[in-house]
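As a warm-up, study this chain.
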Amino acid sequence: MATARQAAFVLLKKMQKDAAYSNLLLENAALLNTLSQRDRALATALVYGVTERRLTLDFQLAQYLSRPLSKLSPEAVCVLRLGAYQLLFMEKIPSSAAINESVKLAKKYCAYASGLCNAVLRKVSQNGLVLPDASADNYLSIKYSCPQWLIDQWTRDYGEETARGILASSFAPQGFTVRVNTNKTDAQTLLRQLETEGVTAQVTALPGLLKLTNLPCRVDELPSFKDGLFHVQDKASMLCALSLDAKKGERVFDLCAAPGGKTFTVAEEMKNCGEVLAFDLYEHRTALIESGAKRLGLSCVKAAQGDASVFDAALGQADRVLCDVPCSGLGILRQKPEVKWKDPVSLQELPALQLKILETGARYVKDGGRLIYSTCALSRAENEDVCAAFLKNHPAFQPVAALPELSEQAFLTLFPQQHDCDGFFIAAFRKDKNA
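Now compare it with the structure written out below.
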């Protein structure tokens, strides 16, 4: 049977090879299911920790290597990162255990480098965290393990103070929040039910959103989950769904819906009365929406495969249209820390696709209807610039307050350090009745 560290090693290697997202990898890793709950938690913490702190870890290791990390085998690099992360960022793990277990890993996966791993990790343990001088150009990059291009982008887009806040918040614990299925229960009843299941939960400032702690098992193993009493959703995602302001009996399109969290909240807000058409490009992802809606008892939700960038006149029109477009994901580093390691060149084509989806979505909106554009990106190029381009060529649409109870802004950016949620952008438009 694999140990927690062996499981983390295997998963990190797979992420490196397949460019997989850490959260999806962890959710679907059969290897983790062979571990005890305690070891599963350790393996998960190691995978996330090594991924988000990679740049900082590599800087530490480079202090004690005579050749670049790139000259070592991927297996040796992975062992060194795992060991250094435990030594520097996991206070409850004794240094001796971190070093000894790392050497065991090296002997199993890269025996030739076991001596090197032992020597380097002992030096890391002796010297602790090493950072560049605070005045150095790479100080923030190394301290927050973030590529310089991204720090420059956030500073340019939002100013230095906000950029530093984003960086610091990227290491904050990710709260586990769920949306109460108000068609089946209410917050207080669900709280009592969760307590009987061994879950500690508390209400949040946002009605219908609960924060869960002390989970005794995976969330999808809870009886309350199986009974459809809630679905997992971050505060920002829920606010995005609420910004549609969908009413009972209306017709709503969610053009990029999978896995369905916003769709479900919208349907619940509509009292399961009306029609919510949820689309995704891939069939296996529409299946996620269908299964989720069935579990929650939301019969007004209809999932279908569809390309959000291609207009389909046969669908008719809708009172509300949500375009939660594909994006860089630069607002959800707490969930997917590997996002920051993307090649920035690969992100340059996103705004064109995002604008195309927004323009397509606008064609479905009835006169007087509401259109929402959203991303989980903190990037003006993907957010404000796309909206400005849209408004320039679509005079029938006017910007309106996305969430009046929170802000009068039509273009609303949610920052993790300010709003205690994922980084998110929400823009709202109303189509003139005389258009």
